[in-house]
Amino acid sequence: MRLDKFLKVSFLVKRRTLAKEVCDQGRVTINGKTAKAGTTVSVGDEIAIRYGQKIVTVRVEKLLNSVRKEDAGQLYTLLREEAANREQEV
After folding, report:
1. Residue 75's closest CA among 87, 66, 84?
2. What backbone torsions phi and psi does residue 24 show, to the nearest 5 degrees?
3. All residues at 6 or more sequence positions from 62 whose CB lies less than 8 Å from its CB, including other chains
4. How far apart are the first and last CA of the chain?
């Protein structure tokens, strides 16, 4: 599954176009490497997303093409949520 679609389906990002923009800005990494919107996501991957002043890191648990908002949390496990330093790049 494409990274931008996973971010949208899991509700980590509200819209797929926004997910693509976030990826294009270099604010998303998969397993420590900067990822583009078309990067393939697999079960077990660690995704780090920079939202303004915080970095959220999750592990992919399931890949589904569609899911209800209430069940979206089953697609990933939150590993950590930390403040982002201004010098720190994700």
Report:
1. 66
2. -65, -25
3. 43, 74, 75
4. 22
CA 85 to CA 62: how far, in whole Å? 31
Angle at 77 between CA 73 and CA 79, to 5 degrees: 135
Give the residue extent of every domain in the chain: 3-83
Over 90: is that where the pLDDT of 52 sits?
Answer: no
Write down the pLDDT at residue 87.
Answer: 53
- Across the beta sheet with 28-30, the strand order is 33-34, 28-30, 46-51, 54-60, 76-83
Give Dmax over CA atoms of the chain in angstroms: 37
- Here the tokens at position 90 are 């994700």
Q: Which residues pair with 52 in a beta bridge?
A: none
The predicted model scores a pTM of 0.84
Domain spanning 3-83, CATH architecture: Roll (3.10)
Three-class secondary structure of residue 27 per DSSP: coil
